[in-house]
Amino acid sequence: MFVYNHSLAHLKRKVYNMSATINALVEEFLDLPLDDQEYAADLLLKQLIESRREHLATRVIEARSNYHAGRIMSGTFDKLMEDLENN
């Protein structure tokens, strides 16, 4: 019996739409004059760097919170493997 998975269908549709959007963007990018392509590429790279910086800052805040809440363990690799085997 086949059960329709709405979430999976929605995800596939979203990925397809995203691919179509990216393909259209690339086509428009390639139609730009070279100087404009360089400017757009530089702008996108700077935005990507900023996004990574923001993501890292969020992870640092989360790590500090976990550390202060006592949810961080430390030890050697051997100790980690031992703990994993015992759980």
Give your account of this protein's structure.
The protein is mostly helical. It folds into two domains: 1-31; 34-87, no CATH class. 82% of the residues lie in helices and 0% in strands. It is built from three helices and no strands. The mean pLDDT is 88.
| Helix proportion | over 70%
Low-confidence stretches: none
User: Number of folding domains?
Assistant: 2
Number of helices: 3
Mean pLDDT: 88
Largest sheet: none
N-C termini distance = 37 Å
Shape: elongated
The proportion of residues in beta strands is under 5%
- What is the C-alpha radius of gyration, as a whole number of Å? 23 Å
Q: Which structural category fits the helices and strands?
A: mainly alpha
- Count the E strands: 0
Order of helices and strands: HHH
